[in-house]
Amino acid sequence: MKRIITSLLLLLLLACARPPYQLRKPQQSFYNSLANHCGKSFAGSVVFPADGKDPFAGQPLVMHVQTCSDTTLRIPFRVGKDQSRTWVLRKTSQGLQLKHDHRHADGTPDEITQYGGMALTTENKLEQRFPADAYTANLLPAAATNEWTLALSPDGRTFSYILRRDKQLRFRADFDLTKPL
Q1: In which element (H, E) is residue 129 found?
Q2: What does the alpha-carbon distance between residue 88 and residue 100 come to, in Å, rounded to a whole number?
Q3: Is the pLDDT of residue 18 over 80?
């Protein structure tokens, strides 16, 4: 009886200790490239719109590749003194997922949070595009056609966060990866 219980416990442990979700090679390569910057922070700036009318324009932008595991990257994104935003990249059984985690200063979730989507299947290891998912469309109907792009320049010097809505560019911020803060 003791052997049976021990065997069952061992099987249970093996079942629970499965490896992290396996991403397709381009998604895994992109994930690894970002994870290589874990523990570093980078300054950025609004590239579009260039007219200075975006609420983020003229404010210091900083991304922190802060929390990195085999399955999740958490990248807080600061706009001036506002620390309410975190980009969350997560490996799932469906592929690479991007979510926007918005929090109040006390750490409680904002009512508009956890929107995003799953990366499209492409062969591009430098750029991942995330169309809005059903949760996002229900939470923010105007964002139902959103597509977020996270991109690394071919020379590895720049990280870009890009938002398109109805296939029109709405926002782009670039971060200089050559000068960690």
Answers
A1: strand 127-131
A2: 6
A3: no
